[in-house]
From TrEMBL:
Residues 5-258 form the FAD dependent oxidoreductase domain. Keywords: FAD, Flavoprotein, Oxidoreductase. Gene3D superfamilies: FAD/NAD(P)-binding domain. GO terms for molecular function: oxidoreductase activity, acting on CH-OH group of donors. Belongs to the GMC oxidoreductase family. It comes from Gymnodinialimonas phycosphaerae. Residues 422-478 form the Glucose-methanol-choline oxidoreductase C-terminal domain. Its cofactor is FAD. The keyword Flavoprotein applies. PROSITE patterns: MIP (PS00221). InterPro entries: FAD-dep_OxRdtase, FAD/NAD-bd_sf, GMC_OxRtase_C, MIP_CS, P2Ox-like. This is GMC family oxidoreductase. The keyword Ligase does not apply.
Amino acid sequence: MTDADIIIVGSGMGGATLAAGLAGSGLRVLILERGQLLHDSPEARDPVAIFRDGHYRPDETWLTPDGARFSPGNYACVGGNSKFYGAVMLRYREADFAPIQHIGGTTPGWPVSYDALAPFYARAEQLFRVRGQSGMDPTDPPHDGYGFPPVPHEPEISDLAVRLTKAGLHPSPLPLAVDLERWLSRAQTPWDAFPDTNGGKLDAESAALVTALEDPNVILRTGVEVRRIEVEGDRVTGLLTSAGRLTAPRIVLAAGAVRTAALLLRSADEAHPTGLANRSDQVGRNFMNHNASAVLGLSGRRNRSVYQKTLQINDWYLTGGPDGAPLGNVQLLGRVSAPILAAQTGLPMPLARLIAGRAIDFYAMSEDLPNPDSRVSVRGDDIVLDWKRSNWKAHLALVAKLKATLKRVGFPVVLSKAFDRRTPSHQCGTARIGDDPATSVCDPMGRTHDHPNLYICDASLLPTSAAVNPSLTIAALALRQADHLKETP
């Protein structure tokens, strides 16, 4: 007797949404999560505890290629990193599925089209109750509209939208998985980078996992770490975990782009000396992490916003660079208060208070291109991350465009700071999908080319990072995979 029909390793955006898609199918689904449920506490809305003291950051460290240790900023809990995400649920743009020429090179495109993924995008938006408004963004892909109106702008952001429109841009509402009234009922804080402990954010746990666990055939086990995958011939036979050996006819890895790759590499054996699912030598390669910067526009006006993160600009997404090259997405950050600014920059509190009180905070994001030398590897028990930034000139051009625009619309002082490897800006790509087993790890449904009963369902699958938040695309791929698993023995 096996422990389940399907075991899912990880309860983040991919794993939890996959479980929700499998609920009601009659299949016995076991979800393994190395972390625990997050419970409410005073620290959950305390910016000093979160941003200065690192209350929720795990003790885990990774290595740079030269052996220096760093804290990767990933979270081990039920719901994974989505518990702290900005709740942005953007579809990839239609053009993102085809090869695109960037300043830093050309993307490879996807083995599936936007049209093939569109129905699953719509289902994911329903599951996460996404609030938005289609038709205002010039890069919007074909879309039948949202089931909920957008999260309302606060007065300062409404005024910003007017000024940007007068400058010739097309600001539009961010699609958000947020129940605003419920979020603010706990405390008057932003949600970006704050943990969801009251269901105000619709994340992998509060939306997808809650739905999945309504089915008695779906079981969640916490505090279980998977250490190795067993294989006989080309089939996976079991998982060696901190809770003993567990078995199922089908295994799905959804531990995140870094840890999924590390688990495959650590499971090397005599028949698979370079790791499982690695005939292509692509496991762990093509690691991508968005090029991202915080940009603060300062003026004499007070910014009394609480949450702020409701607006985006995509006028430079598909063009805007030299020879019309794409630059990326701009969206608002969650409100950067004085305690957050002081914790992140080391500024004295009086100066942080002065800046934060008069700033509107933006997040500039550009595509990182796949590169086989940008990779995850293992060294003993350690994970080694060798992230090689790409397309950096495009990101600098995007930040320059944004700064110039903000100065035109009434922000005489504009500051910027790039995020480094300690900030996981949408890690992806380490087990990418493709039609060719020689150049990809998984087929377009997420099944590994090398092992017919081993699947992957997380950001590892993404062949490109695009320049938008990946959560909705991961969820759409998960629902598509769920349908496949229900239809395929």
